[in-house]
Amino acid sequence: MSIRPSVQRFIEYLRIKTVQPTPDYSTCTKFLRRQAQELGLDFNVKEYVAGKPVVILSWPGTSPSLPSIILNSHTDVVPVFEEFWDYPPFDATRVATDAQGTDFKIYARGSQDMKIVGHGYLEAIRRLKVEEKQQMLRTIHAVFVPDEEIGGHDGMKLFVESKEFAALNAGFALDEGMANPDKPLRVFYGERAPCWVKFIARGNTGHGSQFIEGTAAEKLVPIIDHLMQFRQTQLQIYKTPHDDGSQRTLGEVTTANLTLLNSGVQHNVVPENATAGFDIRMTPAVDYTEFKRDLEALAEKHGAETEFVQFWDDNSTTATDTSNPFWPAFEQAVTAQGFDIFKEIFPAATDSRYLRRAGVPALGVTPLCQAPILLHDHNEFVKESEFLAAIDFYAGVIAAVANVH
Ligand SMILES: CSCC[C@H](NC=O)C(=O)O
Ligand SMILES: [Zn+2]
Ligand SMILES: [Zn+2]
């Protein structure tokens, strides 16, 4: 059987090597330009940092003065360890799931994270606009941004601060979420805040055979200990079910992982310095300013210094009740398609945080249910049926939120 045109286009998008650290954004922009032409969408590209395009495909609504709908997706993908893949990660190999070819797995880096979403938006717009000739009340902007995987500093951050973004008059946004091995659709209304902190200790050096006092390691070890204990208490909370017996999610607790350790030059030389880097993700209930002060105090107590490589200090969340006029429309469209919603705080960080900080309500959704979580993993794939269902999903959701009065 021949491949559907929508799947063919998806495969073409998956084959573009927008892989960090040297993403091919130029081929990606050309692809998106062609999509805009085919769909009759306005097309704009803006580079806030040279070579890092923010691409905007716009579909004007019948009431263009109403706040618009942003369909956000990042175009970059994370690196691969190719030797661990069964198929080349940028070939988008289509593998039948059974002898009859009832369904296919499409293997590609970025298939889950997040090209199924970005391309899902485009195919949904194609259906609504080109095939069904519908018109939406609100203007829709499908925004394709660079560099989310490395923090979005040269992408979404600058875009949200720009006059072009202000001109979009954004009222509501959709962005990525995460697959769910269980049945409900995970809807992320906030994110944990990344705190990437380095503790740097300096001390006396000397021969490795002596009792040297005030060494860098002696200063660093109690700091590591303290954070490991903190990690343990959070883990206990995480493992303790809610009163109603339901499991806690990562978004409800703060995680801390020791991810970088550096010290030493030679076995018999006591090192002059030692550093420990932690990846901490703070749940929105935490007072971020106080948390930061506590880390600084911890370092000072043991004679070390801190360096905050990343520190997010905004804990805005998006309302998931009638106070957010887009929520009921979203919820209704999603449940009409047979999904149960599971509301969550996103455990990691996405570009949604820039939108929420700017006051734009944003929901993170990746319409993959009863599917393994494969983002950033080897052999990332989506099923063809999942991609086709994503188009239905976005057609329903977009029509609902873009027609909110
Ligand atoms: C501090 S920005 C880091 C952003 C990154 N996002 C996707 O994985 C993350 O590690 O969550
Ligand atoms: Zn992503
Ligand atoms: Zn990612």
What does this entry look like structurally?
32% of the residues lie in helices and 25% in strands. It has a six-stranded mixed β-sheet. Strands 11-13-9-14 form a four-stranded antiparallel β-sheet, with helices on one face. Strand 1 and strand 2 (52-59) form a beta hairpin. The chain folds into two domains: 5-191 and 316-401, Aminopeptidase; 193-311, Alpha-Beta Plaits, CATH 3.30.70. The protein has 405 residues and is α/β, with parallel strands linked by helices. The chain is globular and about 80 Å long. The two termini are 43 Å apart.
List the helices and strands and how they pair.
Layout: H1 5-15, H2 25-39, E1 42-49, E2 52-59, E3 68-74, E4 93-96, E5 104-107, H3 111-131, E6 140-145, H4 156-160, H5 163-168, E7 170-175, E8 185-191, E9 193-202, E10 206-207, H6 216-239, E11 255-263, E12 269-270, E13 273-282, H7 288-301, E14 304-311, H8 326-336, E15 341-346, H9 352-357, E16 362-364, E17 381-383, H10 384-401
Helix pairs in contact: 1-3, 3-10, 8-10
The structure holds N-formylmethionine and zinc ion (2 copies).
N-formylmethionine is lined by residues 149, 151, 194, 310, 348-349.
